Amino acid sequence: MINVCDIQVMKPLLAEHGFHFSKAKGQNFLIAPWVPQSIAEDSGVDETVGVLEIGPGIGPLTQQLALRAKKVCAVELDTRLAPILQKTVGEFDNLEILWGDVLDQDIPGLVREKFEGLRPMACANLPYYITSPILSALLEADCFEAVTVMVQKEVAQRIAAAPGSPDYSAFTVFCQYYAEPELLFDVPAHCFLPQPKVTSAVITLRVRKERTWDILDEKIFFRTVKASFAMRRKKLSNGLAAGFPELGKTGAAEVIEKAGFDANIRGETLSIPDFARIANEIARMRGQR
Ligand code: SAM
User: Fold this and answer.
1) Is the C-beta atom of 55 inside 6 A of ligand 1?
2) How far apart are the CA of 186 and the centre of ligand 1, in A?
3) One pLDDT digit (tens) per residue for the chain, 289 residues
4) ω before 56 within 30° of 0 (cis)?
5) Ligand 1 centroid vs 133 CA: distance in angstroms?
6) Cα–Cα distance, 104 to 38 (Å, whole number)
7) What domains does the chain contain, in order, with CATH numbers?
8) Pocket test for ligand 1, best of 7, 54, 62 (most atoms within 8 A of CB)
9) Distance of alpha carbon 154 from alpha carbon 191, whole angstroms
10) With a 6 A CB cut-off, is 113 part of the ligand 1 pocket?
11) Which among 218, 235, 270, 280 is least buried, having the fewest CB atoms inside 10 angstroms?
12) Which of 52, 107, 125 to mutate to test the pocket of ligand 1 (most atoms within 8 A of CB)?
């Protein structure tokens, strides 16, 4: 197996194919072998698993996943990588590469078709310019056991943040609604070529088998979350009144009271069950109108 993380191997390989990194496609390739090994190891991928990889690049993580999983499907946007991947991962008969934009894929359909009878997981060193849309698509697909990704460290911290902390955001609530996050390890910029300007981190999101909170209307729940974070450091009633103009200030205050919270409560301190209580009051109030 070609050690694609060895810079002495990688540079001539890229030169041979006239490959130049595309900043627009978020191409920062791993040059530290311990990183793809640790990601694959910590992802929990084994011979019972079908794993979707996003952005194989020249294949360092793909190799490690193909060594462990029953099946790997890797979606790559940049077709210039085809002849290189043929050399670096062509030997794996449990690997299929799909060419295209991951955001154009029917992910649940792909998982059903490719991973029948297997435990589906997703694993990737993500292109950072579309971290949130990809993570949202993977979680909303609601078909993976776990999603293990390398992202910018600050994004990983935001995903794993606790209520009331400065990193806690609407994206935190969205991710934690679907999954339980665990920060795994940091990856310094010198582990990539070219070096990104930021530190990276690997995070696992274990998708919840059950969501234990009662939510009457998922759309209203996510609208409530968005409205609650739109006006940080202001009273929740202001955010709710702006996000649900039909409630008005009085209706927003009434919702907060009925849900059992203090009138001065701030949105960024609320947990998922708290948001659920508020969203359910809004749903009930709208139902009565
Ligand atoms: N996995 C390789 C590694 O760790 O060295 C490459 C990771 S690099 C950060 C991101 C990869 O995602 C690149 O290969 C890039 O071409 C690919 N990519 C970018 N946008 C994509 C998209 N929308 N769909 C699929 N792949 C994409």
Assistant:
1) yes
2) 19
3) 999 999 999 999 999 999 999 999 999 999 999 999 999 999 999 999 999 999 999 999 999 999 999 999 999 999 999 999 999 999 999 999 999 999 999 999 999 999 999 999 999 999 999 999 999 999 999 999 999 999 999 999 999 999 999 999 999 999 999 999 999 999 999 999 999 999 999 999 999 998 888 999 999 999 999 999 988 778 899 999 999 999 899 999 999 999 999 988 888 999 999 999 999 999 998 776 5
4) no
5) 14
6) 29
7) 7-207 (3.40.50.150), 218-287 (1.10.8.100)
8) 54
9) 17
10) no
11) 218
12) 125
Instruction: Enter the tokens of residue 235.
Output: 């009273």
Identify residue 283 by its one-letter amino acid code: A
**Rounded-to-integer distance, Cα 155 and Cα 148, Å:** 13
- Side chain identity at 245, as an amino acid letter? P
268 lines ligand 1 (CB under 6 A): no
